[in-house]
């Protein structure tokens, strides 16, 4: 089960639930168990179920290798609540399941969740109502006319420029009248441009099941594209929508730990844990996730592009989707991703949890405040954790402004102004970014490459410690000793002998002098 069986479309979370439950029921090993002097056939322990299901989820691209045992236990509890499994006495409906030897079995029938059905007329009206009072209609036929097949991801720059030249010449022959551009025209061009690019990148025949055009607010896109700091973070004109000063100070403190610029903060044992809880409470107190409820289906569908050979496609799709967010939400998301990414990579960060590592804690804490559904969905936690993990690794690219979109809109407005294009939604022929697919690799090859890449990054970290001339000698020794304890194999590869390690500090290895060897005296025989 590698997550390829669920195509993009509405209610993807429900479809994934059905796929996971079906795979679990079909693949979970069953055998005889003894409990309280009785034998039970065709059952399994809770611990065995956690082992098997956790491995299944980690090998599924929709959830990823960072699925924890605790998340798997939570999913099994939902299985018990929804009668996917039952205990050995046939009881279900509660969430009384732990990682132990309690026995469970499958019921005679495992219920699959039914998909909500939208009436075709309602789906049709949701699009028609948006455009019935407008002269310019969002015509997807323009997309099919100008976009090559196979998801439109091999659209070359040369072909785009050639097509542009032909259209300009054709329009110049037919029309030389100029027209004034209204604010409504500008907003419609932004709306249509981002929808067409998003549809092309996702490779879906229509976006109507994922997002309604009325949900796209051009003012948000325009603001997110233009009002940014030198670091690309959205700057809010209305400071009442911004994060409070104390939250910003707390986030800055942990992001730059222990070299925070704010030296007035008191420090004590457990100080960093208290600061982290304060930040977490603030973000978890929002009534709506940062990605908003209305874009839930859109982001969940992009999760199915999160495969090794489609990583670039997922980054570009998320880049466009994050532009749809209200500016305050986008700013909070940018600052949150920057903080948790720095914290998870900071080797000097003290432990913030007794059991979980820093990265796992970041994902576990903030996943629900980034993505969740308005109605409770059983796979919410796993899907959100997968997305937050990907955002942490690629937030710099995903949350930056795409220059090609700005160029496309400017060109189209220029054509509209010169009369080469009649309506804002017609003739969106600016070149799309060119993509090329890599050769698809197996899951084993991907894991091997991932390990080698991680080891290379850790080895680079070791080199940075070694070459850091501003680091005091005592501090450098301490860091190297800590590194040797955490990554002994990488350390041994860098320092195979004590001589090579001593050479770093300009010392000669102390060689113990051999013990004094007394030669035994020769005794002559008394016999002559």
Automatic annotation (TrEMBL):
Domain DEP: from-to ranges: 24-108
Domain Rho-GAP: 205-399
Molecular function terms from GO: GTPase activator activity
SMART domains recorded: DEP
Pfam families documented for this protein: DEP, RhoGAP
Lineage: superkingdom: Eukaryota
One annotated GO biological process: intracellular signal transduction
The keyword Endoplasmic reticulum is annotated on this UniProt entry: no
Keyword Cytoplasm (UniProt): no
Keyword list, A-Z: GTPase activation
GO CC field: nucleus; transcription repressor complex
PANTHER family linked to this entry: DEP DOMAIN-CONTAINING, DEP DOMAIN-CONTAINING PROTEIN 1A
Protein name stated in the entry: DEP domain-containing protein 1B
Species this protein is from: Marmota marmota marmota (Alpine marmot)
Lineage: Eukaryota, Metazoa, Chordata, Craniata, Vertebrata
């Amino acid at each position: 089960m590698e997550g390829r069986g669920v195509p993009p479309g509405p209610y993807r979370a429900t479809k994934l639930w059905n796929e996971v439950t079906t795979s679990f029921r079909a693949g979970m090993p069953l055998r005889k168990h003894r409990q309280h002097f009785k034998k039970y056939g065709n059952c399994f322990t809770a611990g065995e179920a956690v082992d098997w299901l956790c491995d299944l989820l980690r090998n599924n691209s929709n959830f990823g290798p960072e699925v924890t045992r605790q998340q798997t236990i939570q999913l099994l509890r939902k299985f018990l609540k929804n009668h996917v499994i039952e205990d050995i006495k046939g009881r279900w409906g509660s969430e009384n399941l732990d990682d132990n030897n309690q026995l469970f079995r499958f019921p005679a029938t495992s219920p699959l969740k039914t998909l909500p059905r939208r009436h075709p007329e309602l789906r049709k009206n949701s699009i028609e109502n948006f455009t019935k009072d407008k002269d310019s209609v969002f015509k997807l036929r323009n997309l099919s006319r100008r976009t090559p097949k196979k998801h439109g991801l091999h659209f070359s720059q040369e072909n785009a420029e050639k097509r542009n030249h032909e259209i300009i010449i054709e329009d110049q022959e037919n029309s030389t009248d100029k027209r004034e551009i209204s604010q409504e025209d500008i907003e419609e061009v932004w709306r249509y441009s981002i929808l067409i690019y998003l549809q092309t990148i996702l490779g879906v025949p229509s976006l109507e099941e994922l997002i309604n055009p009325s949900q796209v607010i051009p003012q948000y896109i325009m603001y997110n594209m233009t009002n940014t700091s030198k670091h690309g973070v959205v700057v809010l004109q209305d400071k009442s929508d911004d994060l409070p000063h104390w939250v910003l100070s707390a986030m800055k403190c942990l992001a730059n730990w222990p070299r925070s610029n704010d030296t007035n903060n008191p420090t004590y044992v457990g100080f960093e844990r208290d600061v982290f809880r304060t930040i977490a409470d603030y973000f978890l107190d929002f009534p709506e996730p940062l990605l908003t409820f209305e874009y839930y289906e859109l982001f969940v569908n992009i999760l199915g592009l999160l495969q090794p050979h489609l990583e670039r496609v997922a980054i570009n799709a998320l880049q466009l989707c994050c532009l749809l967010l209200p500016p305050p939400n986008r700013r909070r998301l940018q600052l949150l991703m920057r903080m948790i990414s720095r914290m998870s990579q900071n080797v000097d960060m003290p432990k913030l949890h007794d059991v979980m590592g820093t990265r796992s804690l970041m994902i576990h804490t903030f996943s629900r405040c980034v993505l969740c559904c308005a109605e409770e969905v059983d796979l919410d936690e796993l899907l959100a954790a997968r997305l937050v993990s990907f955002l942490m690794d690629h937030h710099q690219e995903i949350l930056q402004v795409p220059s090609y979109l700005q160029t496309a809109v400017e060109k189209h407005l220029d054509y509209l102004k010169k009369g080469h294009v009649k309506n804002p939604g017609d003739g969106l022929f600016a070149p799309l970014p060119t993509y090329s697919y890599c050769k698809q690799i197996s899951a084993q090859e991907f894991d091997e490459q991932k390990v080698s890449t991680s080891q290379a990054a850790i080895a680079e970290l070791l080199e940075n410690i070694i070459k850091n001339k501003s680091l005091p000698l005592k501090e450098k020794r301490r860091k190297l000793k800590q590194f040797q304890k955490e990554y002994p194999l990488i350390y041994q590869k860098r320092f195979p002998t004590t001589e090579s390690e001593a050479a770093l500090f300009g010392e000669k290895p102390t060689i113990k002098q051999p013990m004094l060897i007394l030669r035994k005296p020769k005794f002559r025989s008394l016999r002559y």
